[in-house]
Amino acid sequence: GDSVTQMEGPVTLSEEAFLTINCTYTATGYPSLFWYVQYPGEGLQLLLKATKADDKGSNKGFEATYRKETTSFHLEKGSVQVSDSAVYFCALGLNYGGSQGNLIFGKGTKLSVKP
Amino acid sequence: DTAVSQTPKYLVTQMGNDKSIKCEQNLGHDTMYWYKQDSKKFLKIMFSYNNKELIINETVPNRFSPKSPDKAHLNLHINSLELGDSAVYFCASSQDFLTGGIYEQYFGPGTRLTVT
After folding, report:
1. Distance CA A5, CA B56 (A)
2. Residue that wins the pLDDT comparison between B81 and B42
3. In whole angstroms, what is the distance from residue B13 CA to residue A41 CA?
4. Mutate to test the interface with A, among B93, B102, B106 (most CBs of A within 10 A)
5. Which of A34, A38, A107 lies nearest to residue B104, judging by beta carbons?
6. Over the stretch A56-88, which tens digit does the pLDDT of each residue have?
7. A41 CB contacts (<8 Å, ≥6 apart)?
């Protein structure tokens, strides 16, 4: 079935370090891919998205490229800040049959950035 | 203005009670959703409504029932609450999806339900 696998956390980095959070997926058809971020005590916010193969989503210094050949959508940022500390969710948007519009989430990766 | 709002933010109640969580969106979206986030932060969709019709109904207990009085509201009613219902419940909304296209979902701040 459709699923998302992301790297287990927590991830702890120093400020200005490089960040990669791995995400791979299994899906029927041609899904859209998303990264959401959840800051402590808040709801989820869309960070970036990609709707087709080779698309690159980017926002606030974060980037992810939709790789169909490796079924991946890894999140990267060149220099993290303390304010990036949050839980990051990779999600798959289904676009077929009765599941159209449904989002399948990964289990989330908690990022802590130390000053 | 808050795009997707939920009330209450916190809800503490006893087993066996019936409770409701309200959700409203002012984005003009056609589709609304309810998600459950467990203690390990795992998110799973429970329901979605499109133009007042239930279009996704995952395998949740029938004690949970979504009610949509209009396109801007999707409330969640829970009967006979159990300890295992303790979680954070998120409401979300999106534009109506088109064949081959998926729109991002906008989430509310969540309602933390604690059943004692």
Report:
1. 22
2. B81
3. 20
4. B102
5. A34
6. 999 999 999 999 999 999 999 999 999 999 999
7. none
